[in-house]
Amino acid sequence: MVRLFGPLVGLFFAVALLWSFGNGAYNAVTQPTPPTAEALFHKHPKEVAFSFDGPFGTFDKAQLQRGFKIYQEVCSNCHSLKQVAFRDLGQLGYKEAEIKAIAKNWGNKAQTFDPKTGDRADRPNLPSDHFPPVYYAGQGNPPDLSLVAKSRHGGAQYIHSLLTGYVDQVGYKNEAGEELLKKFPDAKTPDGLYFNPYFANLNLAMPQPLTSDGQVTYSDGTKATVDQMAMDVSAFLTWTAEPKLDKRKQTGWPVLGFLLCATVLAYLAKRNVWADKH
Amino acid sequence: MSFPWANEYKPSHPLMKWVDERLPLPRFVYSAVGAGYPVPRNLNYMWNFGVLAGFALVLQIVTGVVLAMHYAANSGVAFDSVEHIMRDVNWGWMLRYAHANGASMFFIVVYTHIFRGFFYSSYKAPREMIWLLGVVIFLLMMATAFMGYVLPWGQMSFWGAKVITGLFSAIPLVGTPLQQWLLGGFAPDNAALNRFFSLHFLLPFVILGVIILHVWALHIPGSSNPTGVEVKQESDTVPFHPYYTAKDGFGLGVFLIVYCGLVFFAPNLLGHPDNYIPANPLSTPAHIVPEWYFWPFYAILRAFTSDFLFIPAKLMGVLAMFSAILVWFFLPWLDTSPVRSGHYRPLFRKFFYLLVVDVLVLGYCGGAPAAEPYVMISQIASMYYFLHFLVILPVVSSIETPQPLPFSITEAVLGKDEHATLSPATPAVA
Q: A135 to chain B, minimum CA–CA distance in Å?
């Protein structure tokens, strides 16, 4: 039975696939899909090096503090950071008193609700609070940034490229030398959106956030160029997405070292046991 | 059953004698995975993967049970509870990465185990039942892994659940009500998340039960081996312990090095970034893809792009995807060659390697966007997949001339066997 019906079933699927293939091939020839503007003009993130790259890389706390300052003064106007608590800033090297002050002076306050009177009110944030929600009335829907470095292909490199990648759409050419608006006159960025070739569909609602050198004053004397600020905030957002990165790698090395020794011993034990059987 | 020369369990300590008379559990273990189980002496490293799969299951259960202590299966808080595990639970990040990458390692090991079975025809008589139970385990694993991936309630969780349960809606007449019944609603939501969590907790223990049957069935004829020649005499076997416990110990070390390399240095390598975005029913991801271990089957599902006869393309895809696994159930009866091992089957061997490449190509296409040329490549590759199992294998079995087999396992290992005078291929000793 199996030997009779098996080949029939196999041929049935094969013919059905051939039919799909034939239709697909016919359509591909008669109505080829033209390449989209996104496919031709979207750019992959720039290759930049971060201190936490590779199996030995660790966070640079001074850089994370600078990045936090960018978040505080620029990003936090529109973007929340709800998975992170103020107390977590201790990992960046802030002292307890500094964290208390940062939490207390944070622009958006924590919300309270009195169940007896039904009154809602604000209170200053505490170190144990998570970063408060941010309400944004403008166009677009600013995503929460806690996990942004892990939820985008390219991670920190992508964030850096996006922040430094705003260009004038008029006259913009890709690597092949094709001009976007000549090839796709309909692809003009709509009002209220901004052109950025690193964004998946080339236009996003966020205006260029880091516009000029010295937009933020660093307390450690680092020169705040646009590129430096973009690097710092990308590093900071990698930390918010993966705060245990240093601990993870620190744990990994002794674990691998132990396993390597144990595996060599296991191999020698195996050879010893098998010595008379080969 | 075991071979007559199997070592017998002889407890020496009075306490163990006392236990053995009342509950012979130590005797059972001794005969199952101890010195009382004679195993062919010529097993290569491909035979490590059964034990590794068992280890991977235990790892998933241990990490999973602890994760379940901190996870909240409610669509409002599930995503945040996973982040709570990653940030605030002591070593929670390690548990979660160990569980997520443990699933990948489990599938790597099981796929190797299955393809070992293909090459050495481990499914042939008298081992059909072991094979059938193995396919059941694989199906249960797929269901468990799918439901586990839904639990973090990220974008891929939600849309994956929507697409996979949507497959059932392709069934004529009852499809849509069936999908709604499975989900407990019109789209994945809290009801679906809760039942998936419940089943994700239950199924691993069902898998454990079927593994016990799988190993039980294995102990009836005993392990197969790379020559495919059955065990004939005591010199063909060695006791499982210490020979294969030692060899499995080494294999386990290599497994753990690869696994810990992933967990500690590339924990998100095999995952999809979109699953770090909370589920949003109003925003469809650009490319919905399942986890990598489903890609070959996903490619087969998407290869059917045109209605065929009276059958809608979607239904064809669903039928083909399930058939791609169900066909394994019929392997023992499709491959009729009396020779088991691919080492002695020159023609079969070529098609086997073609199948390996074919499944890798399918996997690559399944992970790629549903666009040309990937769809056309998947169509060709799916065609080969079905023809391989259902047409090529039966034909090859009947036309192929196998190479001569060794007289015994002992001869295959040592190059000589004093009992080999019985073999007509060996000249009689004067």
A: 18
Q: Is the pTM of this model over 0.90?
A: yes
- Tell me whether residues A259 and B260 touch, CB distance under 8 A: yes
Question: Catalytic: B219?
Answer: yes
> Is residue B17 among the annotated active site residues?
no
Q: Do B264 and A248 touch (CB under 8 A)?
A: yes
Which of A13, A251, A274 minimises the CB distance to B386? A13
The domain A37-84+130-243 is placed in CATH, from the list 3.50.50.60, 1.10.760.10, 3.30.70.890, 1.20.1260.10, at: 1.10.760.10
| Portion 196-255 of A in contact with B at CB < 8 A | 200, 241, 243-244, 247-249, 251-253, 255
- pLDDT digit of tens for each residue in chain B (430 aa)? 578 999 999 999 999 999 999 999 999 999 999 999 999 999 999 999 999 999 999 999 999 999 999 999 999 999 999 999 999 999 999 999 999 999 999 999 999 999 999 999 999 999 999 999 999 999 999 999 999 999 999 999 999 999 999 999 999 999 999 999 999 999 999 999 999 999 999 999 999 999 999 999 999 999 999 999 999 999 999 999 999 999 999 999 999 999 999 999 999 999 999 999 999 999 999 899 999 999 999 999 999 999 998 899 999 999 999 999 999 999 999 999 999 999 999 999 999 999 999 999 999 999 998 888 899 999 999 999 999 999 999 999 999 999 999 999 998 888 877 765 554 554 444 4
CB B105 within 8 A of CB B259: yes
- CB spacing of B386 vs A20 below 8 angstroms: no
**How many whole angstroms separate alpha carbon B372 and alpha carbon B395?**
33
CA contacts within 13 A on the Cβ side of B396: 20
- Nearest Cα of chain A lies from the Cα of B7 at a distance, in angstroms, of 18
Q: Which residue matches tokens 């589920």?
A: B279
d(CA A89, CA A99): 7
Provide the β-strand partners of residue A85: A130
ipTM of the complex in this document: 0.94
Under 8 Å CB-to-CB from B295, ≥6 apart: which residues?
A: B289, B362, B363, B364, B365, B366, B367
Superfamily of domain covering B38-270+288-416? Cytochrome Bc1 Complex; Chain C (1.20.810.10)
